[in-house]
């Protein structure tokens, strides 16, 4: 069980997934809120039923799974919709993340959170991945085939860059490519190994 938890935050398109994958490559257990968010809205789950009841067939694909881009567009265009979906999914996501981190067998665990700012009680340390806003926009447009307007709506719904740095113990600026990221993660991995054995 990993008692030392490193929180990983960052806005959309900053490279959180790439950074968390590099930690995973080093043998570290990663609990990712985005993956948990997908798991808790699978058909048959309570959150899935509540979302379909509210939004109807327009948020379903042909195979009856959620059409995530369609739901994302609804959620980021209407604050009430966003709050409703968060209320349905938040508790189940936290429970899933706690289950993964509490059963982790690595020296420490990475907890990837896509929303919010600062540390929460689950974290011993906070790493923030950041990137220039123009890079965030281009990455998300390429990755998700979103329009500029859709990406800007997502960014408006998230904390700004300065706010996101609140309580950060470590920061990676992701603007120099994969090799730079790999080196930064390797340095932090050694630090977290030291902290996890030294403080527990």
Q: Could you give a quick summary of the protein structure above?
A:
The protein is α/β, with parallel strands linked by helices. The chain contains nine helices and five strands, in the order E-H-E-H-H-H-H-E-E-H-H-H-E-H.
Write a structural description.
- The structure is a single chain.
- The chain has about 200 residues and is α/β, with parallel strands linked by helices.
- The chain has a single domain, classed as Rossmann fold.
- It is about 55% helix and about 10% strand.
- The chain contains 9 helices and 5 strands.
- It has a 5-stranded parallel β-sheet, sandwiched between helices.
- Helix 1 packs across helix 9 (about 180-200) and helix 2 crosses helix 5.
- The longest helix has 24 residues, at about 80-100.
- The mean pLDDT is about 85.
